[in-house]
């Protein structure tokens, strides 16, 4: 999702100092901070909101997904304690980026949100490893499987490349890459690129 206007973001965290710190960092990077909350109270207004940054919790995840449903709003979760279950739940719910508090820096926050706004995912490598262990679904591939072009795009996604990098590497247009990614997500029954890479890796497709 690339926009000509400054990207808009809502910041949710139980600690006011953390919220203010994230807001200050993002405002310096030309993000427009629409508001802030603790445990999604007050509830964000999702209209024309590009990114909702929320503190992960079982109830907050459900509320964030409900708020973003049917909208282009991207979900970014900050996590105080990273577990295999929490990573699995967030990726299955369609969260585009997961940011552990223990490693969260201004640069990491800004880079991750810019990547998410551009339509990519931001999932640390150790979390991808955790995701690869997620085997709750036995089969995602339909009868047709994935074609050569789709597997090529998936391999580059697994290498951490973004849409522009994949387009340059394969000599495709960025629109073509986005269309291929959309087809892959549909075939694999996945919500995010990270989940698609994990599923394809687990099933030996790439």
Automatic annotation (TrEMBL):
The keyword Secreted does not apply. InterPro entries: Sig_transdc_resp-reg_C-effctor, Tscrpt_reg_LuxR_C, WalR-like. PANTHER family: TRANSCRIPTIONAL REGULATORY PROTEIN NARL-RELATED, TWO-COMPONENT RESPONSE REGULATOR. Coiled coil: none annotated. Keywords: DNA-binding, Transcription, Transcription regulation. GO terms for biological process: regulation of DNA-templated transcription. GO terms for molecular function: DNA binding. Pfam families: GerE. This is HTH luxR-type domain-containing protein. Signal peptide: none annotated. Residues 139-204 form the HTH luxR-type domain. The keyword rRNA-binding does not apply.
């Amino acid at each position: 999702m690339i926009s000509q206007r400054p990207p808009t973001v809502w910041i949710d965290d139980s600690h006011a100092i953390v919220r203010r710190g994230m807001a200050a960092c993002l405002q310096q990077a030309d993000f427009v901070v629409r508001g802030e909350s603790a445990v999604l109270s007050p509830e964000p207004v999702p209209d024309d909101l590009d990114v909702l940054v929320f503190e992960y919790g079982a109830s907050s995840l459900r509320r964030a997904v409900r708020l973003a449903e049917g909208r282009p709003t991207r979900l970014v979760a900050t996590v105080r304690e990273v577990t295999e279950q929490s990573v699995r739940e967030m990726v299955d719910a369609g969260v585009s980026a997961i940011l552990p508090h223990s490693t969260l820096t201004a640069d990491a926050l800004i880079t991750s949100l810019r990547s998410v706004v551009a339509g990519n995912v931001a999932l640390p490598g150790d979390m991808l490893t955790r995701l690869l262990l997620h085997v709750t679904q036995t089969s995602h591939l339909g009868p047709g499987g994935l074609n050569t072009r789709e597997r090529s795009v998936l391999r580059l996604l697994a290498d951490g490349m973004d849409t522009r990098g994949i387009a340059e590497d394969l000599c495709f247009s960025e629109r073509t890459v986005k269309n291929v990614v959309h087809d892959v997500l549909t075939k694999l029954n996945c919500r995010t690129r990270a989940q698609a890479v994990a599923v394809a890796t687990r099933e030996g497709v790439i």
